[in-house]
Amino acid sequence: MAGKKVVVGMSGGVDSSVAACLLKEQGYDVVGATMQIWPDEGETAAENGGCCGLSAVEDARRVAEALDIPHYVMNFRREFKCRVMDYFVEEYLAGRTPNPCIACNRYVKWESMLRRSMEIGADYIATGHYARIMRTAEGRYAVRTSVTARKDQTYALYSLTQEQLAHTLMPVGEYTKEEIRKIAEQAGLPVAHKPDSQEICFIPDHDYAAYIGRAAGERVPPEGNFVTENGEVLGRHRGITHYTIGQRRGLNLALGHPVFVTQIRPETNEVVIGGAEDVFGDTLVCDHINYMGMGGLPAPREVTAKIRYSHAGERCTIERIAEDVIRCTFHRPVRAITPGQAVVFYEDGCVLGGGIIRRPIQSGR
Q1: Is residue 101 flagged as an active site residue?
Q2: pTM for the complete prediction?
Q3: Is 52 one of the annotated active-site residues of the chain?
Q4: Domains delineated in the chain
Q5: Catalytic entry in 201, 316, 328, 350
Q6: What is the pLDDT of residues 1-13, one digit of tens each?
């Protein structure tokens, strides 16, 4: 669109690089921007290719040179530390399992970057997410699933506001991953074959408990008891930050049959253990609701809901039971409803909204 300026959030990966390429081809005045989020530039994780680390900045700069667009580094260290890293630690200390990518999208990639981009005269920001922006019949902005279900990233975008979506472009959502890499090759982009980042960017070794231990220090919960639902002690656990709902591995409990984490009780420092059937639930309660595609929930509504990024989705009925609180009742029990994770509501490939899971209710209870 000639004359319209767009700031593309460039992580140094192929997806955001191709987003910049596509928008330039479409006639936008494209500016590349990479977020500087690491509190300590000497931190090892920032150097190993993670999202927005030091090597990512260099890769993004090389892509910008290839596309002949300006490139800037925007400092969001304070926002990332507060909204993502600290939030991640506090949620685990409270016995919940957070999704830091959702927090980063909402508060850093959009809230902070959009504000900064508007200040320098941009009309839009853009990212390399596999998702599409649409308008509903009621005129609301919503996120629509990408053309490739395998790479769809709409789950992590449910919390975006109407104002943010009105100023956002997501060109990658119209392509498959294979097509994106082909476009990158044809454009001569130096990251055409760069592997995708799979880990949480500030915990590249996947050792969440060790990271929380370093960050929380003396506040880290000590060892405690594995218990049954009724309180029978089964053994000792290493601390609640080592566990999440549905976990089977690493429990070191020899009970003669497979067992799983079914609940975490931070108030008593207990981890509840049950059988495979105890991991399933048919009802959850969520709060911090964003009514993205529906604007509100005046009456119960049947939708499809995803309770984690990798969840295929399940039909359910959602109803508002209090201010900013929704109850979600699944037609069939779903596995490992996890407090702290998001539940996202869909209809015909469109994100209607979602919230944060606060309380699961087990099947038959």
Answers
A1: no
A2: 0.92
A3: no
A4: 5-129+170-186 (3.40.50.620), 222-274 (2.30.30.280), 279-362 (2.40.30.10)
A5: 201
A6: 667 999 999 999 9
